[in-house]
Design a protein that fits this description.
The complex is a heterodimer of chains A (169) and B (149). Chain A has five helices and seven strands; from the N terminus they run E-E-H-E-E-E-H-E-H-E-H-H. Chain A has 169 residues and is α/β, with parallel strands linked by helices. The longest helix of chain B has 34 residues, at 109-142. Classes of the chains: A alpha/beta (169), B mainly alpha (149). Chain A: The modification 4-aspartylphosphate is found at residue 66.
Chain lengths: 169, 149
Amino acid sequence: MVLATETTQFHVLAVDDSNIDRKLIERLLKTSSYQDDQERSSNSASVSSDDDQNHQEVEVNLIITDYCMPGMTGYDLLKKIKGSSSFKDIPVVIMSSENIPSRINRCLEDGAEEFFLKPVQLSDVNKLKPHLMRGRSKEIQPNMNKRKGMEEISSPDRTRTRYNELEVV
Amino acid sequence: MDVVQLQRQLVDYKASLYNEAILDEQFTQLQELQDENNPDFVVEVVSLFFEDSERLLNELTKALEQQNIDFKRVDAHVHQLKGSSSSIGAQRVQKVCIAFRNCCEEQNVQGCLICLQQVKNEYSLVKTKLETMFKLEQQILAAGGSIPV
């Protein structure tokens, strides 16, 4: 019962039962992706969007999901993804309108890269870039930049190749 | 009325919406996400908000008319309304939703009914205000002017 939108040349899967929030996330992601050079992460997996013969293979570079959804929470989704051999390496970000520290900590401890409080801002979405580019540098630096003010570990300089094709879905 | 007068009217009108806390900073964020390539973004999001809210208000009305009120269900609808109003910056609607959720938690029927009426009033207000604002914007554009930031 989850509803999703796919967007940007990075193929970010946005999962949210609110169509308003999905539209907002889509716009934020597209705005953010035009701000500088982008590079597709080599760390991606295919998601079959259909059950029958004509299934389409889509690479997903990041999943951003709402916490409160009918049927399944974002945390449940996180656990499913991290428990899956095919998808466990896809970075997962969780959003919620409720500021509950124990909830936030549990999500982060169990593998969510970031936890955003709604309404999500452009500054939040800009934090996704390191996660989208994961798998490129030799040493993976965990991003400790959480909403409630922990210090940021800056990532090492990386050579970036110019992305030739802007593929906006 | 000429373009300059219309633009001034729009600026004043928008300012009043913020001053009266009908809209908050989040609405400004929405406007900043709009550009020449996505000129209808704000109108589209707001339209979704109107549709969604009307559906939720109908559901809430029905749910609160029941003999045995399902407060969990009521709360779920209010939670959604609180979320969407927050996403577009409809501050007053959001605030009533917070009080509404408290009433649900307390299983306070009277409180819920009062909140429902309040949220309907606030929704009606923000809808009217936003529609007026969009009309003003259209008038400016039709007169060949640009929307003042």
